[in-house]
Each structure stands twice: as structure tokens, then as C-alpha cells.
Amino acid sequence: MNIGEAAKASGVSAKMIRYYEQTGLIPAAGRTNSGYRDYSGTDVHMLRFIRRARDLGFSVAEISDLLGLWRDETRQSAEVKRLAQGHVHELERKIKDLQDMVHTLTVLINSCRGDHRPHCPILEGLESDQDNEAASIQPRAGAVDRSLR
Q1: How many helices (H) and strands (E) does the chain have?
Q2: Which GO terms describe its molecular function (predicted)?
Q3: Distance of CA 20 to CAs 2, 51, 82, 106, Å?
């Protein structure tokens, strides 16, 4: 099947399929005599696996690890479980960070009258580097540090 058909069957856009091939996440598709990509049912199955993993928030690097484990019939399920548990911990950390942001913004919003005057506690809170409740805006955390695994 061509890339459009594979995209429709897998739920992964043609653009992302090309990206996954380019980055080596999936092997390059076979080609027809006219040079078009030709995908098999196995390719579509792998693309569905990737789509589901992306839907669960796994990074491309983590999906690469998962695909390696998926393909390795000698793997131990403990490896897969460890990877999934690490992802859950990262999601929980992100949830906490988002909750902290909501709290800080709520405090700032509640301190603002929202009237015709120029005084704005929200802007003051954003420009402040003081560590009080109304101004405590935590820096965003970076990407997952894969070296910790």
C-alpha cells in the first residue's frame, strides 16, 4: 500500500511516517518500480504501535526503546515495566508542575482587580524574582534525562 493508505490505516500522518523513516525509528519502506513507498501490513502494525505510544506521551527516543523491546523476543518484561514506570513518574512530575503553575496563576489572577487602572499584579508577579506565593513562578523543567535510566 502507498503512504497515504498506510497513513489512513495506521492513524499516523504521511508527514510523520516520512519523519519516522528519516530518523530511523522505522525502517525505510520498500519501493515500487515507479519509486513510490510500499508499506506492508507489518509496517502498518508497527505504525499503530508508534501512534499508541505517542498517544500515551512517550517520546520518540522512548518509543525507539519500546520498539527494540517489542522486536526482541528474548526480552524480559521487567525491562518494559521499568521503562513504563519511568514514564509514569515523569508524567506525575509534569502534572505536579502544571498544578503548581495553575496555583501560581490563580493567586496572581485573584490579586488583580481587572479594572481600568494600569496597576497589574499579574505583570508584577511575572517580572518579580521574589520568592513569595504570588510571585513564585517555577522554571519549566527540561526534557527527560535519559542518562538516569
Answers
A1: 6, 2
A2: copper ion binding; DNA binding; DNA-binding transcription factor activity
A3: 16, 11, 24, 40
The pLDDT value recorded for residue 147 is 45
**Positive/negative CA dihedral, 82, 62, 44, 73:** negative
User: Which stretch, 57-61, 112-116, 129-133, has highest mean pLDDT?
Assistant: 57-61
SS3 content of the chain, % helix, strand, coil (to 5): 60, 5, 40
CATH architecture for the domain at 3-71 = Orthogonal Bundle (1.10)
In the predicted model, is pLDDT for residue 109 greater than 90?
yes
Q: Which residues contact 30 (CB under 8 A, 6 or more apart)?
A: 37, 38, 39, 40
